[in-house]
Amino acid sequence: MHNTKVTVTTQDIHEYKGDMLVFHAARREDGTIDCDPRVSTYVAALTDYNDFTAKLNETVLFYPAEMKNTEMLAARRVLVVGIGKKESRDDESVHREIFRSVGGTISKVCEKLKIKDLTVAAGPDLGLERAAIVECITEGILLGDYRFEKYKSEDEETPVYPGVKKIIFEVSGKAAALKKACQRGASAAMAACIARDMANEPGNNWTASHFARLAEKLSEKYPLKCTILDKTKMKRLGMGGLLAVNQGSAEPPKLIVLEYTPDKAKETVMLVGKGLTFDSGGISLKPAAGMHDMKYDMCGGAAVMAAMQAIAEDRPSVRVVALIPATDNMSGSKALKPGDIIRHYNGITSEIVNTDAEGRLILADALAYGIKTYTPDCVVDVATLTGAVIIGLGHHHTGVLGNNDELVEQLVRAGKSCGEPLWRLPLGKEYTKQIESQVADIKNAGGRPGGTITAAAYLEKFVGDTPWAHLDIAGTAWDFTEKTYIPKGPSGVAVRTLVEFVRCRK
Asked: Fewest beta carbons within 10 Å, which of 7, 163, 398, 493?
């Protein structure tokens, strides 16, 4: 699936003899269907019988060789997908999500029929530019075509469907803009699928070392510089948070740094992702029920690393530095204990009141170190940080907090455009007061009230005056809102938001 070719063609689609030709259709105010003239006669007949009303993601499939009045289309199959009512909206992101959803629906039909190649024709645009439609349908197909079957035994009677191998978009006139739109959509979607792959790997096959090896591979393939800080270097630097979380583990920690540096960079954006490869809770042990899902606690790190691949492919004019602090959180004989006091990279001391509040400890060191070392113009961290964000926002919005209104708003816009909505939560002295300690500078948990906010208040202690935003993806990294292009399990959330955020800063 990650090798799917996406391209455009100016060839007459009457000559296309591939697996499936796809059209989309909208319903007009008077109930008639707006669709491509090449299939309008057939669709109109279906409408007369109320068999197709062009509701969003409604589909109809027919076979040109067996039908009349299809203008001699040579494709083996023709699929028509509904996009809903034909109405203009001021919010472009709504239309983008419609076409992304349609792409997901196309992928499901492809899986059912074992389609290897398809061509997508033009159709009603709902006021959206053709390039945007192509980008979103590409994203939807590739995201919806995802599956993780690495550890499943092959069934000879039911061969594994390898996924769509080729997607072609019909264009008229100049093809350059639409070809670029294909590439944008494919780059972001494939990066999100790579993040899903990382998250789907079991804890015994995705450790800090695996994170490091992937970073090294990316640096060999793309214009990225890779630096790996090991345990010895962390001790020398005084990264007490990352080292403390790792104390009970047999696997050594890593701090992975990837740098994309273009010529004459206008600014530096820093991304930090929580790479907690398995979270047992440490001494503050989690309940057994559901603990297997804690292999997903590295989704923030996966999102940041995958986003760097897409950013390196895009080659923006801004410098981007990514840091992934990686370790697991285990309860070995040397494990961090409630009541312990640690000292972070920037000298702040922290009383540990709950060893299951470990994500903020590793992020704190990475934030402080990254800001001092790379002097970024802004910082965004991404983490499956708190269960509290699920109580507050469910699985439908990512929580966002920050110290800079403009930065937060840029991220909210990027998420909205990508179909990954963010909801801002407050920060302030009232919440910071909850993490005050009597024996250290701060403590690592502030109680149940406002748990997502007090976790962010902890991180805020390590960013100084640098514009900073924190994305808590615990509710959206898996079990995200059901969509045609979102599978069960890890969603790959935040990858496309980060990529779009960087694209808008060019």
From this structure: 7
Residue 261: which of 198, 308, 204, 212 has the closest Cα? Answer: 308
Torsion sign across C-alpha atoms 433, 438, 443, 446: negative
319, 360, 443, 496: which one is catalytic?
Answer: 360
In sequence order, which residues have a C-beta less than 8 Å from that of residue 85 and are 6 or more positions away?
26, 27, 29
| Distance from the Cα of residue 273 to its chain's centroid | 12
C-alpha triplet 194, 197, 200: angle, nearest 5°: 155
CB atoms within 10 A of CB 158: 7
Q: What is the mean pLDDT of residues 283-305?
A: 96
DSSP assignments along 312-362, one per residue: HHH--SSEEEEEEEEEEE---TT---TT-EEE-TTS-EEE-S-TT--HHHH
Interval 186-199: pLDDT, tens? 999 999 999 999 99
Q: Cα 268 to the chain's mean position, in Å?
A: 21
Question: Which pLDDT tens digit goes with each residue over 63-81?
Answer: 988 776 556 788 999 999 9
* The pLDDT value given to residue 27: 93
Asked whether residue 401 carries a pLDDT value surpassing 60, the answer given is yes
> What is residue 48's predicted lDDT score, i.e. its pLDDT?
79
Locate 25 and state its tokens.
Answer: 């259709």
Q: What is the pLDDT of residues 250-271, one digit of tens each?
A: 999 999 999 999 999 989 999 9
Burial label for 187, CB within 10 Å (0-12, 13-18, 19+), is: buried
Evaluate if residue 369 carries a pLDDT over 90: yes
Structure tokens at 50: 């109320």
Instruction: Say if strands 59-62 and 78-85 run parallel, antiparallel, or are unpaired.
Output: antiparallel
**% of the chain exceeding 90 in pLDDT:** 86
Q: Is 217 annotated as catalytic?
A: no
Cα gap 98→107, rounded to integer Å: 14
Inter-residue contact 275 to 324 (CB < 8 Å): yes
360 has catalytic annotation = yes
Tell me how far apart the alpha carbons of residues 420 and 475 are, in angstroms, rounded to a whole number.
12
- Residues 272, 323 contacting (CB under 8 angstroms): yes
Pairing, β 225-229 against β 254-260: antiparallel
Question: Which pLDDT value is given to residue 111?
Answer: 96
Q: What is the mean pLDDT of the chain?
A: 95
Plot region of 411 (φ>0 → left; ψ -120 to 50 → alpha; else → beta) = alpha
Q: How far is CA 466 from the centre of its chain?
A: 25
Asked if 377 and 320 count as a contact pair (C-beta separation under 8 A), the reply is no
* Cα–Cα distance measured from residue 219 to residue 308, given in angstroms and rounded to the nearest whole number: 10
Write down the catalytic residue from 85, 286, 413, 503.
286
Using 50, 70 and 90 to split pLDDT, how confident is the model at 24? very high
CB-based burial label for 385 (10 Å; 0-12, 13-18, 19+): buried
Strands 20-27 and 33-34: antiparallel
Of 278, 212, 284, give the one whose Cα is nearest residue 250: 278
351 closest CA partner among 283, 436, 426:
436
